[in-house]
């Protein structure tokens, strides 16, 4: 038996909206410690990794670790039936064929119950290496979303360069060139606007803007985004989930473009 309640449906809605356009069908793994999801997009270029600690939920029970095969687009449609302030409870039997989704309004005067058919999705577990990254930057999530949107006007490939001075985003497309530079600055009036750089060595890599645009759909989840890079390995674009640090995270991995296909 699996049963978990989130006090506000808005959080689950934002999470599913963030990943449904990148990954359509996925196994959601539920176990005693929480809920997780790992899946590649259909092109096998990007990877999504979601981890939600059991403490994020106001009620959490999982008798046995089971995978719940979900069509995320259909799950998102059901979640849209909930008000942002409604609580949402997810229930599944150990060998059940449906996920039961219950919404309850704050005053408990309205309860809605839906069932979503579970799918049998055959996926191998993807081992994500615990990499020590050469360069990382913490910046405003809204600023990152805006930069990616602005870069997309000029081309389809964005070069990200991280140095001790700051982080630079540039594009060289058919229409022209563009460059946006964020200087390292921790002493700003608003903490969320700080640009924090951690650097062992400068790194410069190029990535497909189409996928970075998908990643920025997670912007409503967190005020800040953590970008980690090392030469010749996928970039990690990570967002915290929940108000307290360590309660959950949503991370996207994207392989860099090599010069021949840039």
Automatic annotation (TrEMBL):
Keyword Protein biosynthesis tagged: no
Record carries keyword Nucleus: yes
Gene Ontology molecular function, alphabetical: DNA binding; DNA polymerase processivity factor activity
Keywords recorded for this protein, A-Z: DNA replication, DNA-binding, Nucleus
Domain Proliferating cell nuclear antigen PCNA N-terminal residue range list: 1-124
Subcellular location, record wording: Nucleus
One GO CC annotation: PCNA complex
Secretion signal span: none
Domain Proliferating cell nuclear antigen PCNA C-terminal: 127-257
One Gene Ontology biological process: mismatch repair
Domain of life: Eukaryota
Its biological purpose: This protein is an auxiliary protein of DNA polymerase delta and is involved in the control of eukaryotic DNA replication by increasing the polymerase's processivity during elongation of the leading strand.
Family note: Belongs to the PCNA family.
Protein name (database record): DNA sliding clamp PCNA
Native species: Chrysophaeum taylorii
């Amino acid at each position: 038996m699996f049963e978990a309640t989130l006090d506000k449906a808005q959080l689950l809605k934002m999470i599913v909206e963030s990943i449904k356009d990148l990954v359509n069908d996925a196994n959601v793994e539920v176990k005693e410690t929480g809920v997780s999801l790992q899946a590649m997009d259909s092109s096998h270029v990007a990877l999504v990794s979601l981890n939600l600690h059991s403490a994020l939920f106001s009620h959490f029970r999982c008798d046995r670790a089971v995978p719940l095969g979900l069509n995320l687009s259909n799950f998102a449609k059901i979640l849209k039936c909930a008000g942002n302030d409604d609580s949402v409870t997810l229930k599944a039997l150990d060998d059940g064929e449906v996920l039961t989704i219950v919404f309850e309004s704050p005053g408990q005067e309205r309860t809605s119950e839906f069932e979503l058919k579970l799918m049998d999705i055959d996926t191998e577990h993807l081992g994500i290496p615990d990499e020590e990254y050469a360069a990382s930057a913490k910046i405003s999530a809204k600023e990152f979303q805006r930069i990616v949107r602005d870069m997309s006007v000029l081309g389809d490939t964005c070069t990200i360069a991280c140095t001790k001075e700051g982080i630079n985003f540039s594009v060289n497309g058919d229409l022209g060139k563009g460059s946006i530079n964020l200087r390292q600055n921790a002493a700003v009036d608003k903490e969320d606007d700080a640009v924090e750089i951690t650097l062992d060595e400068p790194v410069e890599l190029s990535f497909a803007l189409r996928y970075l645009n998908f990643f920025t759909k997670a912007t409503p989840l967190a005020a800040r985004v953590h970008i980690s890079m090392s030469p010749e390995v996928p970039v990690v674009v990570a967002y915290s989930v929940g108000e307290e640090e360590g309660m959950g995270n949503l991370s996207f991995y994207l392989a860099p473009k090599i010069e021949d296909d840039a």
